[in-house]
Amino acid sequence: MRSNRWEELSADELSVRLTALDGHEVGLVPVGATEQHGPHLPSGTDTIIATRLCELVAERTGCLVLPAISVACSFGHGRVLAGTLSSTPELVASTVREYADWAACSGLTRLLFVNAHFGNGAALSVATDHLRLHRPDLRAAYVDWYSATPEILAEVTADGDDIHANRAETSVMLALAPHLVDTTAMAGADDADRTEGLVFRYTAEALSTNGVTGNPSQASVALGEHLVGLAVTALGELVERGRVEEPPLVAHRPATVSPRPRPVAASSAAAKGPT
Question: Cα-flanking dihedrals φ and ψ of residue 137, to 5°?
Fold first, then answer.
């Protein structure tokens, strides 16, 4: 079976696939992070989840999956807990714009950035806002897998709104990459959400004793498989809709206004008036 991963396809293969859909293919870009995920999950958790969800959607829809953005906006995890690498929000926004620009050179003009890390939201919003104004020839948007549907969001936030390495995220990793989950550490990793009522924002070491927010001890493969199924279905529907979507209205452009005729210069005699 031919690959759906951009980096595994030749220039000719990509050209054929993109030409066949006449500019209507949707490409998925996994957007993750490299950051501490408590004592039981790997630092690449967000990237692993985003990438695998995109691959599963591609298996279902035949869309393309571009290389993941794996070091993103992780300022919220601070510099104390080991494992975190971060870009600035400005750099992530710039990277998203460059992805769209360069993908368009190959004929892929519809991109959906599939995000798995809450801290990326601002950069993704800025970047796609820029693209919709300055590149109207492109289609770009982002979606957070963890809020793709109300049912997913309800499960993800069941043990606290400030989610991190919690019941749901650990469950998804048990379903997608169980060999990377330390189940022994998971059992004692629960830590409360301490953000309620706070006026200001703080980094992880001021909010969590071990980098976790939530109850990973409650995670299960069954819940993970359920959430993965919901996310893949929701994302697959976005791909199918995105392949045919056009703006609801034709872009309004200012009407061309004919320049006003310039007055003819009066002769010197006329300019003087009657004598």
Answer: -80, -10
